[in-house]
Write a structure and sequence with these properties.
By secondary structure, this protein is an all-alpha fold. The chain contains nine helices and no strands.
Length: 199
């Protein structure tokens, strides 16, 4: 990742943060990148989806993907350009899948009362067994995480703490908590995806 003379002052700042994140695994560098672009990225996602919840989820996903692939970033483009491209492509994929899912539901077998009744009462025993296995696998994976990541995941997803409660509990800046949770969640997602065939 070679720095180029074309970078603006903001570009130079981002480049230094990226180097610190990659070379020193500096959590504050990740948090700073998040802080600089979270709001503008969120509003772009909101404009594309017209849904605050989707926009928030897509913003988090975009940062998760960007942080995971940060080593691929080159200073040929501004970091913000690269990040927003990841976010836009991810959002387009999401909207396409969402429309496809809505279309499938709208043309579903409305007269199939047996199927609808089964869905109303939640997962059948086989599905519940698979869900339980996944939960067990997630807990096993979490146990192997580094202590601070393990604590974050447990507080957020097992004890269902809010971001503010985690900040208070761990004494960390909000940006750091969010950045570390993104990375932890991305790691868990990849482990689960690789283990899918075993379940």
């Amino acid at each position: 990742m070679e720095v180029t003379v074309q970078l603006t002052e903001k570009g130079q700042r981002d480049y230094q943060l990226i180097r610190r994140a990659l070379e020193k695994d500096d959590q504050y560098a990740y948090a700073e990148l998040l802080h600089h672009y979270r709001d503008s990225l969120y509003f772009m996602m909101l404009k594309m989806t017209n849904d605050p919840t989707d926009a928030d989820d897509l913003t988090m996903e975009a940062f998760g993907k960007a942080f995971k692939n940060l080593y691929q970033y080159t200073s040929e483009y501004a970091f913000s350009t690269w990040l927003f491209k990841i976010a836009t492509n991810n959002c387009i994929d999401f909207m396409r899948k969402k429309r496809k899912k809505e279309m499938t539901i709208s043309v579903g077998p409305e007269t199939d009362t047996l199927q609808n009744s089964a869905q109303d009462y939640g997962p059948d025993p086989e599905e519940q067994f698979i869900i339980n296995q996944k939960i067990t696998l997630i807990r096993e994976v979490v146990q192997k995480l580094k202590p601070h990541y393990k604590k974050l995941i447990e507080l957020r997803y097992f004890k269902e703490y809010s971001y503010e409660e985690i900040v208070e509990e761990l004494g960390l800046p909000l940006g750091t908590v969010k950045a570390q949770l993104f990375r932890s969640r991305e790691f868990l997602f990849n482990v689960m995806k690789n283990a899918q065939e075993k379940i």
